[in-house]
Specification:
five-stranded parallel beta sheet; alpha/beta; 14 strands; 5 helices
Length: 186
C-alpha cells in the first residue's frame, strides 16, 4: 500500500511539500487498494462480495477494476475517472494509466465461447495515455507508451510508441449553418 502512495507522490507534480498528504484522497489510490482486497476475496472464490466492492468503488471513484484482473506492483492511475480494467486483463509492474483508459474486450459478440483471455496484457513500465483503449487479448510489450486516444487492437512490441492521429484543420470557414454544425459534430 505504501508503494502506491510513494509512486503517486513521485509521478504527480501536484503532490509536493505539505500538500503531499492529498495523495490519500486520490481516487486511483482508493481504487487500487480496494482492488487488492477484492482480488484476494475473488481468488478465494468468495461469491458476490468482490464484485460488490468493485461496484461501490466504481460509484465513488469512477474507476472500475474487475476483481479477476491481475495488477502488478506500483500501478498508478492518474485522475482516474473513466478507467475500466476487464476481468482477464493483466497489468505489469510500474504501469501508469491516465483517466479514460479502457483495458477491455472486443465485445460479447466476438468472444464466442472463449472464457479464458478476452482482455489485454500490459507489460512492465507501460504508460497508457488519456482515453486510450486497448481491446482484446493483445499484448503491449514492456516499456511502451500508448498515446492519448489511441485504439490498440493488435500486439505492440516492447519499447514501442503508439500514437493516435492528430486532429486536422482542413479549412477555415466563416459562420457555420446549423446543418454544417450537425455534420461536423455527429
Amino acid at each position: 500500500m505504501l508503494e502506491e502512495v510513494r509512486v503517486a507522490r513521485e509521478k504527480d507534480p501536484a503532490l509536493r511539500g505539505v500538500s503531499g498528504l492529498e495523495v490519500l484522497f486520490y481516487p486511483g489510490i482508493w481504487a487500487i487498494w480496494s482492488y487488492r482486497l477484492a482480488h484476494r476475496l475473488h481468488r478465494r472464490r468468495i461469491p458476490l462480495l468482490p464484485r460488490a466492492i468493485s461496484q461501490v468503488v466504481r460509484m465513488l471513484t469512477g474507476i472500475e477494476i474487475h476483481p479477476g484482473a491481475v495488477i502488478g506492483r506500483r500501478c498508478f492511475i492518474d485522475h482516474g475517472m473513466g478507467v475500466v480494467i476487464g476481468e482477464t486483463a493483466v497489468v505489469g509492474d510500474d504501469v501508469m494509466l491516465y483517466h479514460g483508459t479502457t483495458l477491455g474486450s472486443k465485445g460479447w459478440w466476438t468472444d464466442g465461447d472463449r472464457l479464458d483471455k478476452r482482455h489485454p496484457t500490459i507489460g512492465d513500465r507501460v504508460v497508457v495515455g488519456t482515453g486510450a483503449s486497448i481491446l482484446g487479448p493483445v499484448v503491449v510489450g514492456h516499456d511502451s507508451v500508448v498515446g492519448a486516444h489511441a485504439l490498440v487492437l493488435q500486439d505492440i512490441p516492447a519499447h514501442s510508441v503508439v500514437r493516435a492521429a492528430k486532429s486536422d484543420i482542413s479549412a477555415q470557414i466563416g459562420k457555420l449553418t446549423d446543418e454544417q454544425i450537425m455534420e461536423y459534430c455527429i
